[in-house]
Amino acid sequence: MALGINMREAHFPGRAPIDAYGNGGFRFADMSHRGSILCLPSGIHGWQPADPASLASGDLQRVLDEADDIEILLVGMGPELRPLPKELREAFRGASIACDPMSTGAAVRTYNVLLAEDRAVAAALIAVD
Predict the structure, then answer these.
(1) Which InterPro entries does the record cross-reference, listed alphabetically (predicted)?
(2) What is Dmax (Cα atoms) for the chain?
C-alpha cells in the first residue's frame, strides 16, 4: 500500500485577527497561509477565486452560504480598489449583506477593528505581494 500526501482544504476553525499580510499570503493565529483567504463565522478558509481581477458570485458562494451570520463583507481586491461586478452587489444586497470593496490592506485593517468590536463581519482577501 502506497502512502501519499493527503491534501486537505486549508481551514482554521475560528475567528482570528489578521496579524500580517503580503508576500502572497497572510499570518493569523500563529500560522501562515500562502494565497487568498475568506474570513467567515465558520473560520478562516483558503480561497482561490477563478479570476482575482474579476470576481463572480461563484467565487463567493461560501460567503452567501453563511449569510445569516454576516452583516458586513469586506472585499480586499488586491493592491488597489476595484468595483465589484453588479451581479455580486445584487447577490449580497439580496442576502442583506453590506459589501465593501477596498484594497487588501484597508480590508485587513478594517476587518481587525470590526472583529475586535464583535461585529458580524466577514472578509474576502485577495493576497498581495
Answers:
(1) MTH938-like_sf, NDUFAF3/AAMDC
(2) 51
- How large a percentage of the chain has pLDDT more than 90? 81
- Grouping H, G, I as helix, E, B as strand and the rest as coil, residue 89 is helix
The H-or-E segment that residue 11 falls in is strand 11-12
Q: Domain-by-domain residue ranges, the chain? A: 13-125
Q: Does the pLDDT of residue 85 top 50, yes or no?
A: yes
Query: Residue 77 carries which side chain, given as an amino acid letter?
Result: M
Q: Which pLDDT belongs to residue 7? A: 42
Helix, strand, or coil (residue 34): strand
Kind and range of the H or E run holding 122: strand 121-125
C-alpha cell at 30: 500563529
β-pairing, 72-76 vs 36-40, is: unpaired
State the DSSP code for 57.
G
